[in-house]
Specification:
The complex is a heterodimer of chains A (317) and B (271). With 317 residues, chain A is an alpha/beta fold. Helices cover 37% and strands 26% of the residues of chain A. In chain A, strand 4 and strand 5 form a beta hairpin. The relative contact order of chain A is 0.14. With 271 residues, chain B is mostly helical. Helix content of chain B is 75%, strand content 0%. In chain B, helix 6 packs antiparallel against helix 9. Chain B starts with 22 loop residues before the first helix and ends with a helix. The chains are: A alpha/beta (317), B mainly alpha (271). At the A-B interface, helix 2, strand 6, helix 3 and helix 4 of A face helix 1 and helix 4 of B.
Chain lengths: 317, 271
């Protein structure tokens, strides 16, 4: 497999604070990696290192085979970056913003205009092309920002929290555009605090917290491996909840309950028939018996709060 | 008649990966961007122009009588000082503009492009020099209307502009450092006015140093603004030229030696 982004042991500290602690990342070409983590987890630091804006204190990273430190110039030819804030010139029109980047990259006036107009068209900004960007809505700014990062036809793009602060509609539009870029074969590293975003867009997810990787895998495997499914049992007669709880505990070893349900984490799918049999033996009529898959939200919370390495002094600015 | 329509290039054909271009063209593009900004907010021209015009007006009508007896006499003295003030204030604009790019993230975008790292700086300095020319033109035009006269030779304007540019370029490095370090454009503005305005007034730009207390005269004498104001006076209305110009160039050299390494270090250091 060819990797578009490969990082090993990336570390970075700012003074006393550790922003990244030996982070490994691998992104196969043409896929989307979601770098997921709460505020201050080190997501932006990772992006800045990969996009050649900051040098790592330890470890190394390659983008399409080029070292981000030793061959920074070469890497810059291959990447596009959109940071956390829309990096556009508000005084310029949409088309001028894109032409500015195109001209910097060495396109002629005519070429840069053609590329700018094409991109604006594709991103639904054609009508606003000649308007000053300060009149743009938040969503339009983000789209213009993303367009600016695509002017140079990058093969790898870094999106640092691309939809933070957008309303659901604008967010959906941006997602659509990102999917379009993936369909063109672009490799994307996307940071986000939103699980739904990672679930929607990413092929693989790396969860980082306090500078360290705490989990990785596809959205599906993360749900399966980290969050275990829950078994729920609701007897018809809630007076029999106590008995149900006893049975569940005998089979599964633990239970939690509320006024209607007895619940337990499922470690072994074999417990389901066992519970059913025992309930039947006891003559308890069951109104509902189900296994619920964990949501990514639960996985995320579990990962970022139950970090076993949390005793280590790792905080980020 | 039938024509064969040329096959349209697919709209989604990736843009050809651009060639590398020289730092000059890239700087030109950065400067172009700033001049296009003016197209969209022409009030910038007014903003930059209004300061010198207001000062000329106030000096000519409010201060002239008390300072020199006549409007003409005082303008002959003060206009060179006003040119220096404009220069210093435009340099503050460099810092504010750069800081805006830094805080908005545009600066990071530029740093992630395969372009020369200094092009964004050179382009900005070049564009701000155009603004400086505009503000000096306005200032001179208005002063002449109010009886200021170049009593040496008109062609002296050329070496004057060159010297003003050298001074502005040297001072820019300090401004860029402020622009890189400050946390917001408003802070830069406050800093600029806190430093730049006293700098122009603690000089002989508007008042002859002889009238000041001795300790202040000492400060005035080593203030680069004094040196530049004296040089411009010599060039436009007569008086010694060689000495103040030499002093100005030395001051510029000191500014460059002090700030270029500091500024470049701050510039290349990642944030």
């Amino acid at each position: 497999m060819t990797y578009a982004i490969q990082a090993t042991g990336l570390s970075k500290r700012y003074g006393e604070t550790v922003a990244l602690h030996s982070v490994d990342l691998e992104v196969p070409a043409g896929t989307v990696l979601g770098l997921l983590g709460p505020n201050g987890a080190g997501k932006t630091t990772a992006v800045r290192i990969l996009a050649t804006l900051a040098g790592p204190d330890g470890g190394e990273a390659r983008v399409l085979g080029h070292d981000v430190v030793k061959e920074a110039g070469r890497v810059r030819e291959l990447i596009g970056l959109t940071g956390q804030f829309a990096a556009i010139d508000e005084l310029l029109s949409g088309v001028e913003n894109l032409m500015f980047i195109g001209r910097l990259l060495g396109l002629s006036r005519a070429e840069s205009r053609r590329v700018a107009v094409d991109l604006l068209e594709r991103f639904g900004l054609a009508e606003a092309a000649d308007r000053s960007a300060k009149t743009y809505s938040g969503g339009m700014r983000r789209r213009l920002d993303l367009a600016a990062c695509l002017v140079g036809a990058p093969k790898v793009i870094f999106l640092d929290e691309p939809t933070t602060g957008l309303d659901p509609n604008a967010r959906d539009q941006l997602w659509e555009i990102i999917r379009g870029e993936v369909a063109r074969g672009v490799t994307i590293l996307l940071t986000t605090q939103y699980l739904e975003e990672a679930d929607q867009l990413a092929d693989d997810i790396v969860v980082i917290d306090r500078g360290s990787v705490v989990a990785q895998g596809t959205p599906q495997t993360l749900k399966q491996e980290v969050g275990r499914p829950t078994l729920l049992v609701r007897p018809v007669d809630s007076a029999r909840l106590d008995r149900v709880a006893d049975i569940v505990t005998e089979v599964a070893g633990e239970h939690t309950r509320d006024e209607r349900f007895v619940k337990t984490r499922v470690n072994d799918t074999g417990i389901l028939p066992a519970v059913v049999r025992r309930l039947d033996d006891a003559g308890i009529e069951v109104a509902e018996l189900s296994i619920r898959e964990p949501s990514l939200d639960e996985v995320f919370k579990q990962l970022t709060t139950e970090n076993p390495e949390s005793t280590k002094k790792v905080t980020t600015p | 008649m039938t024509t064969v329509a040329p096959a349209d290039a697919p709209a989604d054909a990736p843009a050809a990966r651009p060639r590398r271009t020289g730092v000059l063209r890239q700087s030109g593009t950065v400067a172009w961007r700033q001049l296009v900004q003016i197209k969209h907010s022409p009030e910038t021209l007014l903003e930059v122009g209004i300061q010198p015009v207001m000062f000329v007006f106030m000096f000519a009508f409010v201060l002239a009588g008390a300072m020199a007896g006549s409007r003409h006499a005082y303008l002959q003295f003060a206009v060179p000082g006003l040119i220096v003030q404009s220069t210093v204030l435009i340099t503050a604009r460099t810092a504010i503009g750069l800081n805006t790019d830094v805080t908005k993230g545009l600066f990071d975008r530029l740093r992630s492009l395969p372009i020369s790292r200094t092009a964004p700086l050179i382009g900005r300095i070049a564009a701000d020099f155009v603004m400086l020319l505009w503000s000096i033109a306005l200032l001179l035009g208005f002063s002449i209307l109010l009886s200021f006269r170049v009593t040496t030779h008109w062609y002296q304007l050329a070496p004057m502009l060159l010297l003003v540019w050298v001074f502005s370029f040297s001072l820019s490095w300090a401004a860029i450092l402020a622009g890189l370090k400050a946390s917001s454009p408003e802070n830069v503005q406050a800093l600029a006015f806190g430093i730049m305005l006293p700098l122009t007034f603690l000089s002989d730009s508007f008042v002859v140093a002889k009238t000041m207390p001795g300790w202040l005269q000492a400060i005035v004498k080593v203030n680069p603004v004094t040196m530049l104001a004296d040089s411009i006076r010599g060039m436009l209305v007569g008086g010694p030229v060689a000495e103040p110009v030499t002093k100005t160039l030395i001051a510029c050299a000191v500014l460059l030696v002090a700030f270029v390494p500091l500024t470049l270090r701050a510039y290349h250091r990642e944030r």
